Amino acid sequence: MGAVSAAAVLGLVTGCSSGGSGAASSPTSASASASRSGTGTGGAPADVRVAGTLTEDLESPWGVAALPGGDLLVASRDERTITRVDAKTGEKTQVGEVPGVVPGGEGGLLGLAVRDGQVYAYFTAESDNRIVRMPYGGGSTDRLGAPEVVLSGIPKGNVHNGGRIAFGPDGMLYAGTGERGETGLAQDLESLGGKILRMTPEGRPAPGNPFPGSPVYSYGHRNVQGLAWDAEGRLWAAEFGQNTWDELNLIEPGKNYGWPRVEGASDVSGFVSPVAQWRTDEASPSGIAYAEGAIWMAGLRGERLWRIPLSGAERSGEPEAFLVEEYGRLRTVLAAGDGRLWLTTSETDSRGTPGPGDDKILRLEVR
C-alpha cells in the first residue's frame, strides 16, 4: 500500500491525527553561513560551538555509548569492533571484536548501550538482527567478554535495519527497528520489524508493555535510528521517511505511527502525526539527544545538526539547522552534560566522501 503524502498539511499543523500529541511542520534550513548560531522562535537564542575534535580516523562509526567515567565506546559498523575513546585525550583502544556480526548494506555492528558492567550491542547477524550483551570491566586495559543473546529474531535486510538501543529512565532497554524494506512488517504486531521495542535488561517483554507478552512498545515505523528522553522522561524517536518526509515523533505506548499508510503528518484516523518533519534531503536522521530544552538530531543526507526546541510534549518553535554541510554526514549525537554534546561524522559508511581525518568525534557546546 502506498504512503500518503503530507503535502496538504504543510506549514504549521494546529492539530494532529487521532492519538497524536504534537504539531508537525516543514522547517526552513539555516544557511551554511549561519550554521553555528541562530535565534530560536521559542524566544531564546540558540548557539552551537564546535569546541574541538576529540578523535579522528574512525572507520564506519555507528553506535556510541558513554562509560560511567565519561569515556566513550564506539562501534564500527563494518569492522565489527568496539573502540574505547578517552574523553580527555581522544586516545583510542580497541576493546574487542563482536562475534557473529555480518556487515552488508546498512547492516553490521550498530547501536551500543552500557549498564551494570555490561555492553549491549545491536547487530546484523547471518539470519536476523539481534541484541547481545558482553561483560566489560570498564578499565582502560579491559576486554569485552563473550556475548550473551538478549533478543533475536528482529528482521534483517540490506536496508532499514534500525539499530539504536538505549536504556530509559525506567531501567528498561529500548530498541528502534526497521522493516527491512518489507513495508507490511511495520503494521504486523507479530513481527519485531518497524517497531520500537521495550524489554528488561535480560530481553524479556517489559512489565506494563501495551501488548501482553510482547516487547513491542509502538509500531507503524519505517526505520527508527534515534531514541532519546527529555527532562520529564518522555520518549522521542527519529525516523527515516521514504521519498518525502523524515519525522521526529513523541512516542506513546501502543500507538500506531502510520507507516506504510502515511508518511509525515496526516489526518487519517488512528495514526499519530510527527511533532516535526523534514524533506529527506534536509535530514535523513540517525541519532538524537536531549539537551538544553531541545532535541538535537543528526542528519546524514542533510549533513546538518537540527535543534528542535520543546515545551513539554510540544515544540516551542521552529526547528533550526546548524553545521550545514560543514562536516559531511552526521550519524550519532550524545548528550555529555553541562550543555555539551558529542557528535560523530559518517563519511566512511560507503555513502559519504571521506576527507582527511574522517571519521571524527566532535565536541560541541550548546545553549
What are the SSEs and their pairings?
Layout lengths: L36 E3 L5 E11 L5 E6 L5 E5 L4 E5 L6 E6 L11 E7 L2 E7 L4 E7 L12 E7 L10 E3 L5 E4 L18 E5 L16 E4 L4 E6 L5 E5 L5 E7 L24 E4 L5 E7 L2 E6 L5 E7 L2 E2 L4 E3 L7 E8 L2 E6 L15 E6 L1
Antiparallel strand pairs: 1-2, 2-26, 3-4, 4-5, 5-6, 7-8, 8-9, 9-10, 11-12, 12-13, 13-14, 15-16, 16-17, 17-18, 19-20, 20-21, 21-22, 21-23, 24-25, 25-26
Characterization of this structure:
The model is unreliable at 1-23 and 27-43 (pLDDT under 50). The chain has strands at residues 37-39, 45-55, 61-66, 72-76, 81-85, 92-97, 109-115, 118-124, 129-135, 148-154, 165-167, 173-176, 195-199, 216-219, 224-229, 235-239, 245-251, 276-279, 285-291, 294-299, 305-311, 314-315, 320-322, 330-337, 340-345, 361-366. The N and C termini lie far apart (43 Å). The protein has 367 residues and is mostly beta strands. The strands form six sheets. A five-stranded antiparallel β-sheet has the order 1-2-26-25-24, with no helix packed on it. Strands 19, 20, 21, 22 and 23 form a five-stranded antiparallel β-sheet that branches. The protein is 0% helix and 40% strand.
